[in-house]
Structure formats: structure tokens, C-alpha cells
Design brief:
Blueprint: E1 6-12, E2 33-36, E3 52-55, E4 64-65
Parallel strand pairs: 1-4
Antiparallel strand pairs: 1-2, 2-3
């Protein structure tokens, strides 16, 4: 799904602290939310999941979406 829309994430945006971390969650609160990936109007280099930016909560844009995920019961 890379390149369709940027994914709106639930994490609050903050700079990385450094060092190797697997699946960092970010701070508990903040001013901006993380958005990942690229969208249909962005240059090809942005159409990857490692592309990370920020957006203000409540902001709307036709290039931003979200993805629902269903996890099996444990």
C-alpha cells in the first residue's frame, strides 16, 4: 500500500533519542501526531514506510488516511 496515502499514526511526534530501538512508541503526550509513508502526489522517494513526518491532530488532507488492523486473540 505504499504510495496510496500517508498513514496517520497514533504516536505523538518527537525526535528520536538515538540508539537501536524496535517499534518506538514515542512520548505519552505532544502537539503533533506521526504520519508515515508517502502519497500519490509525493515524489517516489517518500513512498516508503520509513518516511516520517508530523501533522496537527484534527487537520484534514486528502493525502492522509489510516489503516485498521485486526489482531488474532491470544
Amino acid at each position: 500500500m505504499h504510495g496510496n496515502v500517508q498513514e496517520w499514526c497514533s504516536d505523538w511526534y518527537a525526535g528520536y533519542l538515538g540508539g537501536a530501538v524496535s517499534d518506538p512508541a514515542g512520548p505519552v503526550t505532544g502537539q503533533f501526531r506521526v504520519q508515515r509513508g508517502g502519497h500519490w502526489g509525493a515524489p517516489a522517494g517518500y513512498a516508503r514506510s520509513a518516511n516520517r513526518a508530523w501533522i496537527q491532530p484534527g487537520a484534514g488532507n486528502p493525502t492522509i488516511g489510516f489503516r485498521l488492523a485486526l489482531a488474532p486473540e491470544r
